[in-house]
Design a protein that fits this description.
Structural class: alpha/beta
Helix content: 25-40%
Number of domains: 2
Order of helices and strands: EEEEHEHEHHEHEHEEHEE
Length: 256
């Protein structure tokens, strides 16, 4: 998406970024916006139609772009790969109530259209199969290399718990944050916590937040994106993932 001030194509470090449409809020009432997903998918169609590529790699969420990408791939005879970060299944009903029927149906349609697919973890691949996927997704995990982690100087601060996740209700940070606990968290652009005001746990003593440096959108430029990148020894702290739905982290015993 683009903000309307500059609609030119961006070429940075060999990555070409094409503007699609003006941005709209990702969340409505604390939930992902269906209108935003539909609007983006509608504007995505002509952009992909006029481009010539070898492979279309589309992430599964929010599902509607999967339909557009597969249609373009079919019309232009271009290979389309769908990268799955998570599969919700029955969680749709907990997220949206009866309206979750529509979400689960569109997720199953996206699975049917994922003939060639990538899963970011074995956990996600298992969830895909549980929802009726009969293919064999390639497992390509998320994350940064150990070499990048080792470049960061060890911080003098000790911590009791390392919480990994956005500050949204589904991540359940309230289950682990207590006044006497020192916890590090990260709020990134697009996180509802940036626009909805501080959540109750953000005001507790001992809660430290790492924010992206001003003027450097996270994920755009190379190098550390945090105001104060730190290296915390995971052996000195418990690592917790209290989220209801997890896609990028394997949940199998022995994986850490």
């Amino acid at each position: 998406m683009f903000d309307g001030s500059d609609v030119s194509i961006i070429n940075r470090d060999g990555l070409i970024i094409h503007p699609v449409c003006r941005p709209t809020g990702l969340y409505t009432g604390g939930r992902r916006s269906v209108i935003q997903a539909l609007r983006y998918s509608f504007h995505l169609f002509p952009v992909l139609l006029k481009m010539k590529v070898d492979i279309i790699d589309c992430q599964n969420f929010p599902y509607f772009p999967v339909i557009v990408s597969r249609l373009i791939g079919f019309l232009k005879k271009e290979k389309c790969i769908i990268t799955w970060h998570e599969a919700w299944g029955a969680y749709w009903y907990q997220y949206l109530g009866l309206s979750g029927i529509g979400g689960r149906v569109i997720e199953k349609i996206a699975l049917l259209l994922s003939g060639s697919s990538i899963a970011v973890s074995h956990h996600t691949a298992d969830r895909m199969r549980n929802e009726g996927y009969h293919g064999s997704p390639e497992i390509i995990t998320n994350g940064i290399t150990l070499q990048d982690i080792r470049k960061i100087a060890q911080d003098e601060t000790t911590t009791d718990i390392i919480f990994i996740g956005r500050f949204i209700p589904e991540k359940h940070r309230e289950l682990v944050v207590e006044p006497e606990v020192l916890i590090f968290g990260v709020i990134l652009p697009g996180d509802p916590a940036r626009t909805q005001g501080p959540a109750h746990c953000l005001d507790l003593p001992g809660v430290h937040l790492l924010l992206p440096r001003p003027g450097r959108p996270a994920g755009v430029e190379k190098g550390p994106q945090l105001a104060r990148p730190v290296s915390l020894d995971p052996l000195d702290a418990d690592q917790v993932l209290p989220a209801i739905v997890r896609g990028g982290a394997d949940q199998r015993s022995g994986d850490r």
